[in-house]
Amino acid sequence: MKLLNILFPIKLYLSIFQLEGYDIDRFLRWIVKNIRRRNVSEKRTLVYTFKTRMLLILSIVLILIVLVSTNIVTRNFPVSVFLALILSTQFYFLLIISRAILYPFEFLIIRRKIIETKQKIQPLKNLKVIAITGSYGKTSVKELLYQLIKDKFKTLRTPESYNTILGISKVVDYELDNTYDFFICEMAAHHLNDIKNLCKMVPPDYAILTGATSQHLERFGSLKNIIKTKFELYESIQNKENIIFNLNDQNIKYGVEKRNISNPKGYLELSNISFSKTGSEFDFYVGRKTYHVKTNLFCKSNIENLSGAITMALKIGVKMEDILNITPNLIAIPHRFSLKNYNNSTIVDNTFSSNEQSFTEMVSTAKMLQGAKVLVTPGLVELGSEETLINSKVGKLTEGVFNKIILVGINDRTKSFAKNLKDKPEFISDTRKDYFEKIEKLSNKYDWIFLENDVTENY
Predict the structure, then answer these.
(1) Is residue 172 domain-shared with residue 27, that is, in the same domain?
(2) pLDDT at residue 39, as a whole number
């Protein structure tokens, strides 16, 4: 079986293609970089979705076509079988052709899903849709808002990261009905007009714009395009008074000013923020009153996410006393600055993803903590031509904050991260095996272990 996987790495290529969002350019770049690779430790196991199954079936059909056609031409069956087997060893080529074949059909399916989903939502007169988008914080704000309002209103939210047209439409098809008061809909984007199309499908009554940063810069091409795409949410919502902006984000603030939006509704103002191994405490202001909150949440970015969620909860009618009863028992979102006690250390796990903004806030949080601290990170990814520049910038922020820095992988990204550091960091390989072995060793030496971004073995 192991030999077959080496000769015919079908599952490997399917996994990577799925991980790359079936983007042919990104998949090809991975192939060029890893043409001889036959094994990776996967962040996510392969899920046999409808699209994945169709790609697999089409690829097999292509092999059969080659087998039959070459046999007809050469009239030599062994030669035909040999050519088909050779082609099977380069399965990525078949997947790319299959993806190109499927694309027009997928385009038509997506257009149809937009219309059908909108038609299902329109008759639900009592339903209010809360749309959430941004370069970061979408899932956290969604989950925190859900916890704040679910006891007062019957609420449905998109699960996990079901935030694309096909994912959201599936939630609407299978779960949404006229008994719900609110539908919290997380909206993701990788290209211009993605949010615009999602809003056509699920027209928002309320909205939260969490932030805009260089994350996915490689896909968008420029920060300008990222900001423009996020503000498609503002352009799409009918009642402009019902959108909340994270004005702490400079790119959102810039977008608001550029559009001359008067009296934008921002997140609640926070002060007296402190962190410990059990979570955080802070004050926030509503009107002229000050409220003190204790939570299980950690890091400034999570507190900011909670501020956005509280702001929206108040706007739709949740009472302050109810919010104050809920906040001490909020459940932290896994791998988004979640805390875990391990041996002698407290691990701060932000391995779901990272971006320039959350990295900056992580460093700011670390400065507030007592004890020995170590940072383990592969740096920031998907930044295109700006990758080395931005990693050099965030690397400089860590100077003097951590007692030790471990960089995962030896590449241009991590070398740029280390460039401006006086105390040279330690480099380890970007395999999950070495990564977890290193954490095990660190857990007996440091009070705090910050894990920022996931292992980049698949990048």
Answers:
(1) no
(2) 66
